[in-house]
Amino acid sequence: MITMNFNQHCLALQLRHRSSLCVGLDPDLARLPETVRHDTVLASVEQFCKGIIEATAAHACAYKPQIAYFASLGAESVLEDLAAWVKKNYPNHLWLLDAKRGDIGATAEHYAKEAFDRYLADAVTLSPYMGLDSLEPFLNREGKGVFLLCRTSNKGGNDLQMQVLGNGLRLFEHLAHTAEQHWNGKGQIGLVAGATYPDEIASIRQQAPSLPLLIPGIGAQGGDLLTTVKAAQTNFFINASRSILYASAKSDWQKAAANEAESLQTAIEKARAQ
Amino acid sequence: MITMNFNQHCLALQLRHRSSLCVGLDPDLARLPETVRHDTVLASVEQFCKGIIEATAAHACAYKPQIAYFASLGAESVLEDLAAWVKKNYPNHLWLLDAKRGDIGATAEHYAKEAFDRYLADAVTLSPYMGLDSLEPFLNREGKGVFLLCRTSNKGGNDLQMQVLGNGLRLFEHLAHTAEQHWNGKGQIGLVAGATYPDEIASIRQQAPSLPLLIPGIGAQGGDLLTTVKAAQTNFFINASRSILYASAKSDWQKAAANEAESLQTAIEKARAQ
Predict the structure, then answer these.
(1) Do B68 and A110 touch (CB under 8 A)?
(2) Which of B230, B258, B231, B209 minimizes the C-alpha distance to B11?
(3) Is there a contact between B175 and B130 (Cβ–Cβ < 8 Å)?
(4) Hey, what domains does chain A have and what are their CATH numbers?
(5) 10 Å Cβ neighbour count for B208?
(6) Which one of A92, B32, B151, B203 has the minimum C-beta count within 10 Å?
(7) CB neighbours (10 Å) of residue A38?
(8) A-chain residues within 8 Å CB-CB of B126?
(9) DSSP letter assigned to residue B4
(10) Cβ A131–B114 below 8 Å, yes or no?
(11) Chain A contact probe: residue of B78, B159, B165, B184 with most A CBs at under 10 A
């Protein structure tokens, strides 16, 4: 029996769902629809996240909980419950923990436990600044994946990522090259590439032809979809969070989220076909 | 009235305690002394951390809880309780959350809430990969500090940090230069520099004469103390975790931790005087 590695699994999920849409779960109390205002904060957050997933599952292939939104509320138990619920009810959607962790040795082992054992993640976002040995405790988990920050969608991304190295590559290109050529032996690595810089997604794709890309920055951040999809070519996830989560603050919030997700899924598939 | 900024506050703490010792709190269940094995995991971790702080407070000027050790156990409530207890009983020790977070915008705001509001940190470690705007939600908190990963003590630190840029500086030197010259307007930034590379601490000090340094890698990781202290010059924290926490697994664990802390404090002060 041949088992797919994580990189292949990403592509298989996109094909299965005919979708490259990843929905980011960033539950912001101040923006929750009126009708999910429960007695307790934790109940509201849980109801909202489940409601978004139910409404959008037909249009998405991945969900990306952003752990900071849970941690700032002390809502770790909600994220645990949500993880178990997703694994039971949506086992064929990618469950990607956005945590951007980065540490070494025993500490990295503990972060891997947090992501994979506690929150049941299929993959986790990591910062690459500490290098390969900071990734190893995650890569040692067979079948699991990591998405390394490569070229981020914010202005400050220029500060380090755009520095030109002695080899002529910019730092983010060097990272993409190194990840593809030297670190991806077991097919577990992906890269984060912001849609605000489609030319740089093309450069990443040149350096890393086979790695799945996680692309935030469409939607609220304003990246252009067609040029992004053309640059990313294949095996990519387009992430949208706020534009779907907060499509309506009224009682039609699930319908509005579903419409927004469907519309983005359709636009991605159309761009892919162009 | 003149208020000290965070950089000055670091130096004042070191002078007050006649110590540059930071004790890292990495509570590893498998290594807890037999006599702190309580009925529950959470009670054990709390008793152990408090016991270490009580035993070493006369020799240390800072404590650095590593959040991964709490998160992998679901022990966030212990870290909250510990934070409140430290703020009440040891208000003149620096309470530095080692989290190495790094994200942007609203997400970074939530991480700042986690560190400063939930865990009452005076300062937090951050990854610099996403640049200045990823630091701003932390720097907007008056009086709080951030320590940016600069040159880390692990082998993989070479992968990105040692890359030579077009301006002739290595990436970590460029970061130190940028942090000192452009980002430290309100005196809130420090740098993390591993003791395994004392020559590179000297390079960091050249680029960043005024920033406090947080230096792991002495003790279990084997860095040389005298060359490290000479390179760091002044305003630095030498962190030790395992060598103090697990100095004894028997009933004398507090006494052993105190001895180890005192011995390291004395060695640092001796090196400083040489």
Answers:
(1) yes
(2) B209
(3) no
(4) 6-273 (3.20.20.70)
(5) 24
(6) A92
(7) 14
(8) none
(9) P
(10) no
(11) B159
Beta bridge partners, A192, equal: A149, A214
Least CB–CB distance from A127: residue in B102, B132, B175: B102
Contacts of B133 in chain A (CB under 8 A): 154-156
Rounded to an integer, what distance in angstroms lies between the CA atom of residue A26 and that of residue A245?
8
What confidence category does residue B221 fall into, taking pLDDT thresholds of 50, 70 and 90? low
8 Å CB contact between B242 and B219: yes
Q: Which residues in chain A have Cβ-Cβ distances shorter than 8 Å to B28?
A: 106
Structure tokens at A156: 């400050």
Residue B72 is nearest to which of A118, A149, A159, comparing CB atoms? A118
Sole residue written with tokens 């694994």: A87
Q: Are A111 and B72 in contact (CB under 8 A)?
A: yes
Q: Which amino acid makes up residue B247?
A: A
Residue A172 CB neighbour total at 10 angstroms: 27
CA distances from A44 to A33, A39, A47, A56, A96 (A): 10, 8, 5, 18, 22
Question: Which of A112, A131, A108, A115 has the alpha carbon at shortest distance from A79?
Answer: A115
Per the listing, tokens 């002739």 go with B168
Q: What is the mean pLDDT of each run of 10 residues along chain A (274 residues)?
A: 88 97 96 86 95 98 98 97 98 98 95 98 98 97 97 94 95 98 97 91 98 88 84 96 96 97 96 91
List active site positions of A: 100
Q: Phi first, then psi: what are they for B254, rounded to 5°?
A: -70, -45
Measure A246 CA to nearest chain B CA, in Å. 14
Query: CA of A176: which chain B residue's CA is closest?
Result: B160
Q: Which residue has the tokens 């939530």?
A: B110
